[in-house]
């Protein structure tokens, strides 16, 4: 159904009219979208999505290694020690024994042979290397 406004103005998808009789339609702002004609409001992009342009009819999904909250205009990269799949609303901490050494990771990798990571999450990007029965661990950043 199309909202018929004074002076024969129509409200098309991606736009809205929040006042009856408005002579000019408003564009849905960034972070929002409009899918139907005759809209009186726009819908916010869901978590894991974003929209960086006005007057759009859909939202874009965040790429793997990134995340967003509701009504986002961009996606943020996961921090070191975290990862995410595509369309994520948050990042997941790497499990103990796994690491991500860069921002925007899509997976956590296993520590290399001879090293381990006892920490979970933010600090798990450091694997500690022990040689034999040594009590002096040497950090391995990789």
Summarize the entry for a quick read.
With 142 residues, the protein is mainly β. The chain has strands at residues 4-5, 9-10, 15-16, 26-27, 32-33, 43-44, 49-50, 60-61, 66-67, 76-77, 82-83, 92-93, 98-99, 109-110, 115-116, 127-129, 138-140.
Description:
The protein has 142 residues and is an all-beta fold. It has two domains: 1-60; 78-142, Tumor Necrosis Factor Receptor, subunit A, domain 2, CATH 2.10.50. Helices cover 0% and strands 25% of the residues. The protein is built from no helices and 17 strands. The chain has strands spanning 4-5, 9-10, 15-16, 26-27, 32-33, 43-44, 49-50, 60-61, 66-67, 76-77, 82-83, 92-93, 98-99, 109-110, 115-116, 127-129, 138-140. The strands form eight sheets. It has a three-stranded antiparallel β-sheet with strand order 15-16-17, with no helix packed on it. A two-stranded antiparallel sheet has the order 1-2. A hairpin with an 8-residue loop joins strand 9 (66-67) and strand 10. It is rod-shaped, with a radius of gyration of 24 Å. 32% of the residues are buried. Mean pLDDT is 79; it is low at 1-8 and 131-136.
Descriptive key words:
single chain; 142 residues; mainly beta; Tumor Necrosis Factor Receptor, subunit A, domain 2; 2 domains; 3-stranded antiparallel β-sheet; two-stranded antiparallel ribbon; 17 strands; rod-shaped
How do the helices and strands line up, and which of them pair or pack?
Elements lengths: L3 E2 L3 E2 L4 E2 L9 E2 L4 E2 L9 E2 L4 E2 L9 E2 L4 E2 L8 E2 L4 E2 L8 E2 L4 E2 L9 E2 L4 E2 L10 E3 L8 E3 L2
Antiparallel strand pairs: 1-2, 3-4, 5-6, 7-8, 9-10, 11-12, 13-14, 15-16, 16-17
């Amino acid at each position: 159904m199309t909202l018929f406004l004074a002076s024969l103005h129509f409200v098309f998808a991606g736009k809205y009219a929040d006042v009856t009789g408005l002579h000019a339609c408003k564009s849905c702002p960034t972070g929002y979208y409009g899918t139907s004609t005759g809209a009186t409001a726009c819908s916010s992009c869901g978590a894991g999505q974003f929209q960086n342009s006005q007057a759009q009819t859909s939202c874009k999904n965040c790429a793997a290694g990134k995340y967003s909250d509701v009504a986002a205009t961009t996606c943020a990269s996961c921090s070191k020690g975290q990862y995410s799949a595509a369309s994520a609303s948050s990042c997941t901490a790497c499990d103990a024994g796994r690491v991500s050494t860069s921002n925007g990771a899509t997976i956590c990798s296993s520590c290399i042979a001879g090293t381990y990571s006892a920490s979970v999450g933010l600090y798990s990007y450091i694997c500690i290397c022990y040689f034999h029965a040594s009590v002096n661990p040497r950090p391995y950043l990789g």
